[in-house]
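Budget justification, computational time. The allocation requested in the original proposal was used primarily to generate structure tokens for proteins on the priority list. As evidence of use, we reproduce two of the resulting records. The first is shown immediately below.
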Amino acid sequence: MPDAARRPEEPSPVVVIGGGPAGCAAALEILRAGFACLLVERGAPDRDKACGDMFVPAAAEELRALGVDLADCSFASAAAAVDLFDDDRLLWRVAYADAPVWIAPRRALDQRLRDTLGAGARVMHRHVAVGTRIDADGALVVALRDADGVSREVRSAAIVIASGASAALARAWGVDGGGLNFPALSAYLPGKSIERPRFEFSDSVPGGYRWVFPAGAMGTNIGWCRLAPGERNDIKTAAGQRFAALGLDDAALVWRGGAASVWSGAGGRWHHEAGIVVCGDSAGLVDPLTGEGLTAALKSGRAAGAAVAAYLVGGRNVKALEYYSAWIRAAFEARYARSPVREVWRRLSRLAD
């Protein structure tokens, strides 16, 4: 635990806005450094997310670093291969012999992460952060509103913004990374099951793909991700037509709408010197080719938490936050650089250069 004499003067906790993978990863790193933490989550416990629920090996590894092994989670299932289709034609079966991909419903996984935080963190469900500011004495203030419309304010030594693709809070501080928001839809289809996860590419899905993933007791997770400009209603119509062609009753599906804030390469700052950092979707870190964002959320969340801890231990040393922004830029430029494998995915997705 850091020397108490070196902690910030005010006793207010670090506030983490967003209780998904990025926010939980940040909170766990802050707690490990010995600081108290308030986690603000807009949803109720076990809230579902518009997501394919797939954790690639890199994301599963990040979870293990946080103390959550999907192999020990009864709600998770492993897959040793993933199929890539061009409509109904199998193109490629990608094997994951050494480290499988995992399917874990977000409602269960996110709650497991929040439960992992323990006594050092206070979790406030069903609260929305509606604004942030610097008070007259230099303290950060987070304005909150609960599900009943009751407002309150929390003073804080530092803030981590991990509120998903809705990056209004990050934009207000100029630290959103310039992410581009593209729409996605997903739904659970009860009573249906497939052997392994599959991605479907088609001329009817330019700049994106469909997914059909096994989801255990939930049935099958089906969805549509667009990695180019477009309206959510457009992909909902196309999704309904496609799944009707497969003999699935679109009318019986409860669609969950969402958005992915993908890496644009335009960002330069993911911190503010007042003691604010942003991570995950709020930072525009989703893979612009695949739409995979869980690895980026977990990886950047851990780094954000470590940066805030270093900032506080160092007596509000802004260098720790500057290093975080430099790390984000270098790490994700390298991660999303063009490569032969990524070029294959680009072509399959019908994405323009």
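The second record produced under the same allocation is shown here.
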Amino acid sequence: MVKEFSGFDNPVGRALSSAYAGLRHVDHLRRRRKTRVRPTVPTISVGNITVGGTGKTPMVAWLHELFAARGLRAHVLAWGYLAAHSGPVEVPAGGDPAEYGDEPIMLARRGIPVWISRQREAGVVPAQENADVLILEDGFQRVEIERDMDIVMFGDQGIGNGRMLPAGVLRDSVRNLRNADALCGPLAAIPPIFPELPRFECGYQGLELDTPLIAPRGRIAAMAAVAYPSRFFRHLESIGIELTVKTPLPDHDPLRPATIAELRSLWKTHDIDCCIVTEKDAVKLPPQI
């Protein structure tokens, strides 16, 4: 069973948290001294200050849809977490998630132009080509790239206990929110600081199932390799799906053959008829498992 991270709030964790806060401050200063890149098109960053899922990728997809409806071409520039390819490279819809990252592949399969680049500023020039708007995924800490808007996302956990990693869930100081232009998430989860910043409510609004699974029957399993698998499982159960087996895995788990073999064995043991997975996980699974 994967424990959902909320921090190690103990004396050792707090000591390490202080050290981490100091390193983050030094990193901010280092980045601000670097030559800043100014994209030639309007640029929006979608980021956060915590670990775990806060809805960045759904917000990026929604922004792309919003711009497309207005006839504007929005391209996405991402880091490509755990991707083997360092970039800069455009992500092919049929590419391997191990090569390009699971979330970039997920966006690419939706028809969204996505670029990944380990050195994010190096990806700006190719990513902005033929684009009307550039969206920086997980870009709040990328101060070396100038942008026109910073959207900061929050999940249900908010800022947790308010401590930096590893004692809490913060990977950046809440003081840096003063650099944001808008805060988004469940309103109760957004910290009540910088009241002058616009706040927009958004959250987990529902679940779309592929056609064959709209009304699944029989013994059903669910698997999720996301930041908070329990939310996915709870939502499935809230819409009337009874789950025989629930398998949480670490966020971004690559679902290697050994893991898939273990899942197959588990499902066989429990006589599972079908398994429901997240879209992010579906891109990493073979057509028939």
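A brief technical remark on that second record: The longest helix spans residues 11-33.
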